[in-house]
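Readers outside the structure-tokenisation community will struggle with the description of the input data as it stands. What matters is that the chain and its backbone geometry are given together, residue for residue. For illustration, here is how one protein appears when written out as sequence plus structure tokens:

…
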Amino acid sequence: MTAVVEYELADGIATITLNRPDDLNAVDLAVCDAMAETLSAFENDPRARVAVLTGRGRVFCAGADLKAFAAGDGPKIAGHRAGFGGFVRFPRTKPIIAAVNGHALAEPDLVYETARTLAEQIRAPAPLAVAATLRVARAAAEGVGEETAWRLNDELLADLFDTADAGEGQRAFVEKRRPAWTGR
């Protein structure tokens, strides 16, 4: 059986591909479960720093699979433990870039290459710093207020100073070389 969500990892960048091209990558319960499992593998792999999410075929994702909804799976799909698509409420600490093909405002021939270039730029900094930035951005988006966001930023920054990556960054700077981040 063909996987409805595919996962590949190269050079610290994961590629997560919706693989239901005949159904325009519409989200059914199998996609929700497979996406949640794939995101768990991505989050737990220290080699994976950033991901590009794309869809096989001519459309990124048509949304909910209405046939699955009509067959009675609607509540399971909409109320999935990881949110719609096994993605929306999944607790992520690593950035994911969507390479949206189909009906979207983008460079259709270059959508994956553009997302991959952005992923390479995100992969370069220390992974713990990227995760901390994502936490502050998420808190700000949730409307915690500027003072609370700054307090969270300061707490996370203090924690980062005590990591192995902080020492590696300082040594790499002094030695004029690229740092070898470990995520610890």
Observations:
- The chain has a mean pLDDT of 90.
- The longest strand covers residues 5-10.
- The chain has two domains: 5-123, 127-174.
